Amino acid sequence: MNPKELKQIIEDGEGYLVEFKKKMGNIDKEMVSFANGSGGRIFIGISDNGELKGIKITNKLKSQIQDIANNCEPAIKIILKEVQDILIVHVRSGADKPYCCSSGFYTRIGPNAQKMTRNQIIEFFQSEGKIRYDELTNIDFNYNKDFDKEKLNNFLKISNISLVVPVPTILQNLGVAEKQGGKVLFNNTGILFFAKNLENTYRHTTITCALFKGINKVNILDRKDFNEDIVTSVDNAMLFLKQHISIRYEFDGSPKRIEIPEIPFEALREAVINAVCHRDYFEKGANVMIAIFDDRVEISSPGTLVKGINKRNFGKKSILRNANIASLFHRMGYIEKMGTGIIRMQELMKKSSLNPIQFEFDNFVTVIFERNPVKNNVPDSGKLNGKLNGKLNPELLLLLEYIAKHPGTQANDIASNLKRPVDTIHKQIRTLIKKELIERRGSRKTGGYFLKDK
């Protein structure tokens, strides 16, 4: 820096990256505030109002400043430079935040070093990844009452892990619990995966699914909230999507028809799992949201991008906000944990001749799939009734049309959307099955009704 540049800095005055100090007093808190922020420079020998006072620069002075930097916790890296009789202390943005000095933690607010409050320190630790939600222990979760062993057994089966040691040991090996004082204490990862009913412990872990009429969040046609455990929630969310995403059918000569959804289910599933796996669970005022509109599907996850990921390298690099949660999903084969998910999703869209997925970043990460509704070759009411020689009454015809447009739908959803009693729907479904117009496929819990291939 030359005298001309120094003059310009003095004229510009103090700011987020520049601090003037007439003497060395309280320089430690200025260093800490810069290290906790974006870095900056402290100009010793200039008064607060920009008056150039100068200071006697000696090796002793430099050593004192270096000692102050080293005594911060952790030590702060600085570079000392001289311009005329002004000593410039370059403070780098710290790689091991947060930093503190003897008087506390400080951050840079505009041109000032401001001491952090307790809540600010907590938020800072969270944003820097020093406190991980999925690793925190919840002592209120009761192993004997709240833990579901069947869910653990299902996880072990899917993950090809043998139950050859006691359950508490398995839980410890998975990193979801530990034994203390004769008790099994779960961390949040264990609770999210193996709670009998997650709703009894956490409400913000819900996946909310909604079908809207039109392109705005005004008229809700269908809504479901899933919060039993995060694996079941993901599976139920996918079932909801399959019920409301159009499918076309192709035949290649084989007995079984080929189902082609308007949006690849694999891409939607990847987005749902990412939303659950990478959301900010410290944010308890919002849920993962799946919104289906006439023209798009939006899947939003609470929280900004994790530290170290930005818009430029999003989808190219992988940094895990919730490493424990990701690890268990990886064991189940739900994710790769290699940062390839976004690329794979885009390739699926391209292969299906669809527009690329769009992403929005603010206080949420939102994934947007453009819809390309496909025709199922389902005739309108007149043509359909004509094909059936008028053998169906209007209620049965409307039910048949609904199932044709929503393959895989369940009786409760039909009753809700057609505004009919569930018992009536079950009776009418039995009639359509008897007439060999529809059939049920899948398990009792997740299966649904489809038109017969004929």
Written overview of the protein:
The protein folds into 4 domains: 3-127, Schlafen, AAA domain (Methyltransferase, Cobalt-precorrin-4 Transmethylase, Domain 2), CATH 3.30.950.30; 133-200, no CATH class; 207-370, Heat Shock Protein 90 (2-Layer Sandwich); 381-451, Arc Repressor Mutant, subunit A, CATH 1.10.10.10. The chain has helices spanning 3-12, 27-36, 59-71, 118-127, 143-146, 149-158, 167-174, 188-194, 230-244, 265-278, 323-331, 341-351, 381-387, 394-405, 411-418, 422-434; strands spanning 18-21, 40-44, 78-83, 86-91, 100-101, 104-109, 112-115, 137-138, 177-180, 183-187, 207-213, 219-226, 247-250, 258-261, 288-292, 296-302, 358-361, 364-370, 438-441, 448-451. 35% of the residues lie in helices and 22% in strands. The chain is built from 16 helices and 20 strands. The longest helix is centred in the middle third of the chain and has 15 residues, at 230-244. It is of the alpha+beta class and 454 residues long.
